[in-house]
Design a protein that fits this description.
This protein is of the alpha/beta class. The chain has 14 helices and four strands. It has helices spanning 2-10, 19-36, 44-60, 92-113, 158-162, 166-173, 184-201, 207-220, 231-240, 244-264, 271-281, 289-300, 304-314, 317-320; strands at 82-86, 120-126, 134-141, 146-152.
């Protein structure tokens, strides 16, 4: 943690650090040391006290008048590398258009959701036979590679690419570790919800438009979930029938509800800010869903995410969407 502070100070980024976030990291670090050193529970308190004292000394050594915001997360990772791979023949003009589209979308997404702690690989496939700009997209992830693939018809104008939801959706996936397919409702809901948040950042939508769209889309699939069965069972059945939009939007409703609870409980964070901090403190590719939820809880100083996940996986489906008319 001291090394982290020295790096921040060297880069002159300490003036942008969130006091609350640094305290959270110090507190977490103190607890981690306690576990590693196999201290008993009473030992947590002096270690955490020492961490808090370090924070006071750090802040006292800085010009606190330069701190502009308590919500800005410092970037301490080395420069992220982005690679563009063209799987088919594209003209130089087409390549430039596609690179500009993805670069702009990726930049806006990471401004909102935090810089992902890995390099990025964007693949382009040519699909001239279909009359739309973006036909399909998917991610491809291993322990060392995080890639997104886009199947495009490059004859369309740049504007047609910019207003499409596919790139915000696939790039949003990268803000979450890869999870097993049994959680498709969760990770597709995550990307579906956040893609619209990214599209607010890119200027495609306004906030009120997204709120209205999200509600309408969940209401439109309500009939698929009028069941006494639990969501994992119903979602698996819908996936087997290729009814993916219903699964995506019931998943998105989890994050819509989490957003509401963050505001009701006055956590001072919205969900995008939670995800942003998650990239800095916690995101690793081998995390399980329980690890992700617990990390979000710690960042938000709440139990919102585990409590809500329990509700979504262990109560009858009909109760999850009964308020959508």
């Amino acid at each position: 943690m001291y090394a982290m502070w020295k790096q921040l100070k060297k880069k002159k980024q300490l003036n942008e650090i969130s006091i609350r976030t640094f305290l959270h990291l110090l507190w977490k670090n103190g607890k981690l040391f306690s576990v590693v050193l196999k201290h008993t529970t009473p030992m947590f308190f002096p270690i955490r006290f020492y961490s808090s004292l370090c924070l006071v000394l750090i802040l006292n050594s800085c010009n606190t008048n330069e701190i502009q915001s308590e919500e800005i997360i410092p970037e301490i990772k080395e420069e992220q590398k982005t690679s563009f791979i063209f799987e088919d023949d594209f003209s130089e003009e087409e390549k430039n258009k596609l690179e500009n589209w993805i670069s702009s979308t990726s930049e806006k997404a990471q401004e909102l959701l935090g810089q992902f702690p890995f390099d990025l690989y964007y693949h382009f496939h040519r699909e001239d036979s279909i009359n739309q700009a973006v036909i399909f997209g998917h991610t491809a992830r291993t322990d060392s590679i995080n890639a997104a693939h886009f199947y495009v018809n490059p004859v369309f104008e740049a504007e047609e690419f910019s207003k499409d939801w596919m790139a915000p959706h696939e790039i949003s996936h990268l803000a979450l570790p890869k999870l097993p397919k049994s959680y498709m409702w969760f990770y597709e809901g995550f990307a579906t919800y956040l893609s619209r948040e990214v599209m607010i950042e890119t200027g495609i939508y306004k906030r009120e438009e997204v709120d209205s769209l999200n509600y309408a889309r969940v209401a439109a699939v309500k009939d698929k979930f009028i069941s006494n069965s639990f969501l994992p069972v119903v979602a698996d059945s819908l996936i087997s029938e290729h009814q993916y939009p219903a699964v995506y939007w019931i998943g998105a409703s989890y994050f819509m509800e989490a957003e509401k609870q963050l505001q009701i409980k006055q956590t001072e964070l919205n969900f995008c800010e939670v995800v942003n901090r998650f990239q800095l403190c916690c995101h690793t590719e081998k995390m399980k869903i329980e690890d992700v939820l617990n990390a979000w809880n710690e960042i938000s100083y709440s139990t919102i995410f585990t409590d809500l996940f329990e509700t979504y996986t262990n109560t009858p489906c009909y109760s999850l969407i009964e308020n959508y008319k």
